[in-house]
């Protein structure tokens, strides 16, 4: 018996199936139609994996590092049978010791966001530090639920109602259900879809693979969460028993059997000293017994899922950061065609930026798509060369963009990159526009008269405004500020003087750029 056939037989035994013995001809695992609940992986060649999956299921368990699950065949025999029958990562890092922060990271690309642009790009990241309800931690950024709309579901066991905002069931934990935390999809928002697609478990658990993306969270007991006085071993047993009852239903579903469904299993966090968590990949194209050592984190999982379901524009939050590895690219996992020649798109060329009073207009030439159609672009902007940050992620194939948020007169530096199903390509060459062509006003010409009655009268000419309207004039006496007068006024009477005292006057004009040089000096001796 070959090593591979032996591995498949061992995997089947560990899954609770009868012993499988193979003839000495071609391995059964490579034959189309050999997908089963007892041998869910390796049944189809990796080269035949779809470019995008019709269904992806992400199951999240709680609070167990990789060392507590992998190899524990006493407390987690079923999960370990899946690990042996499929592939797993031993280098997937959780991002926080707060559960909610990890759930939000897996579905938005941030560990907390309190303010965002109209497009849902976070402008103020605020780390979630407690597992409190949505009223305490409203999330302003775009989530994968909003991005995918009716193509995404959240399935929460023991959830008391659709899209709840508090814990009203003893077995349900709201912080394990991230959908209700996103303000952009809550009831009363402009896109109030949470009550439609954040749902309790269905009676037929295979339904949890029905949407394009399905987030599945068991209840407090089944998710391996703290449960009264139960030991860690007992908590792991709870989750393994749930998996043994639920996952075979997903594997037996028509969607999985057709080869268009991927199941991912992960944990929200390890512990304070062991942040690495298991990540198990299950598809008919996944290697049997594969072990990945590639560095991943929750953003890597989100990035891979977006690519797997064809919603990679924009990659959400830090899933789009340079250097974030995608789980879709892991050869062991079988999450994209193994023989694919698809690559990231090239860098856009011919990039130009022109400015006007109302907007900066960007134009470029579409790059090579890397064998996968371009689905959108990323626009980067900064006020210093090399300091560009993400401004917007327009979807589609248009090669022009209008930046209507630019401030007239401010110099900006821009870059643009293309995105396809594989990810984001290299950025274009940098281009700049603007930089103030306005200046401070010219110096006024000042004249004055010492009138009787202690009245020193000043007047001045209106200088060139430097291209920016004059907003005020500053009167200076004896080298110190005396008075600021309106831009429509070109005279001033100083009556706070002492007879016989000599006073030195100057005046400056001011606009949005700054103050002009001081005018000529006028000396006046106050007259009684």
Mean pLDDT over all positions: 89
Main sheet makeup: 9 strands, mixed
The number of helical elements comes to: 9
Output the radius of gyration: 33 Å
Tell me the structural class. alpha+beta
Low-confidence stretches: 1-33
Report on this structure.
- The protein has helices at 3-14, 66-69, 77-85, 99-108, 144-148, 194-197, 232-251, 254-257, 298-309, and strands at residues 55-61, 87-93, 113-116, 122-125, 152-156, 198-200, 213-217, 261-267, 276-282, 290-292, 296-297, 349-355, 360-365, 376-382, 389-392, 400-403, 412-419, 424-427, 431-433, 446-451, 455-460, 472-477, 480-486, 491-494, 502-510, 522-525.
- The chain is α+β, with helices and mostly antiparallel strands and 528 residues long.
- A hairpin with a 2-residue loop joins strand 22 and strand 23 (480-486).
- Helix 1 (3-14) packs antiparallel against helix 3.
- It is elongated.
- The termini are far apart.
């Amino acid at each position: 018996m070959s090593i591979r056939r032996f591995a498949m037989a061992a995997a089947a035994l560990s899954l609770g199936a009868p012993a499988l013995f193979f003839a000495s001809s071609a391995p059964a695992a490579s034959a189309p139609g050999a997908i089963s609940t007892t041998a869910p992986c390796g049944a189809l060649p990796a080269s035949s994996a779809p470019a995008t999956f019709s269904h992806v299921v992400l199951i999240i368990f709680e609070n167990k590092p990789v060392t507590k699950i992998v190899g524990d065949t006493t407390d987690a025999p079923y999960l370990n049978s899946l690990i042996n029958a499929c592939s797993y990562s031993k280098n997937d890092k959780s991002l926080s010791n707060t559960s909610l922060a990890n759930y939000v990271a897996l579905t938005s690309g941030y560990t907390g966001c309190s303010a965002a642009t109209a497009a849902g790009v976070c402008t103020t990241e605020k780390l979630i530090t407690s597992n409190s309800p949505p009223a305490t931690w409203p999330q302003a950024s775009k989530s994968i639920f909003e991005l995918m709309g009716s193509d995404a579901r959240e399935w929460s066991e023991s959830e008391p109602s659709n899209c709840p905002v508090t814990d009203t069931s003893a077995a349900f934990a709201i912080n394990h259900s991230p959908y209700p935390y996103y303000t952009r999809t809550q009831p009363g928002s402009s896109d109030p879809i949470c009550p439609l697609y954040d749902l309790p478990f269905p009676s037929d658990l295979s339904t949890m693979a029905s949407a394009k993306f399905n987030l599945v969270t068991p209840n407090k007991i089944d998710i391996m969460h703290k449960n009264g006085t139960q030991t860690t071993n007992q908590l792991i047993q709870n989750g393994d028993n749930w998996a043994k009852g639920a996952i075979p239903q997903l594997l037996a579903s028509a969607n999985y059997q057709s080869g268009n469904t991927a199941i991912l299993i992960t944990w929200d966090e390890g512990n304070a000293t062991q942040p690495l968590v298991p990540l198990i990949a299950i598809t008919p194209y996944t290697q049997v017994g594969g072990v990945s050592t590639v560095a991943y984190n929750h953003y890597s999982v989100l990035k891979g899922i977006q690519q797997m379901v064809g919603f990679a524009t924009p990659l959400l939050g830090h899933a789009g950061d340079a250097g974030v590895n995608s789980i879709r690219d892991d050869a062991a996992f079988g999450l994209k065609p193994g023989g694919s020649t698809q690559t990231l798109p090239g860098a856009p060329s011919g990039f130009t930026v022109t400015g006007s009073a109302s907007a900066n207009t960007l134009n470029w030439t579409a790059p090579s798509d890397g064998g996968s159609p371009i689905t959108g672009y990323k626009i980067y902007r900064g006020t210093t060369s090399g300091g560009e940050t993400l401004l917007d992620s327009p979807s589609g194939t248009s090669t022009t963009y209008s930046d209507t948020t630019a401030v007239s007169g401010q110099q900006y530096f821009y870059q643009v990159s293309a995105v396809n199903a594989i990810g984001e390509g290299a950025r274009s060459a940098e281009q700049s526009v603007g930089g103030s062509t306005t200046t401070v006003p010219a110096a006024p010409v000042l004249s004055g008269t010492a009138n009787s009655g202690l009245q020193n009268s000043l007047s001045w000419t209106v200088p060139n405004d430097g291209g920016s309207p004059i907003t005020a004039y500053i009167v200076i006496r004896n080298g110190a500020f005396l008075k600021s007068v309106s831009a429509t006024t070109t005279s001033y009477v100083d009556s706070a003087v002492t007879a016989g005292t000599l006073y030195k006057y100057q005046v400056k004009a001011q606009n949005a750029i700054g103050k002009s040089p001081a005018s000529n000096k006028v000396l006046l001796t106050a007259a009684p």
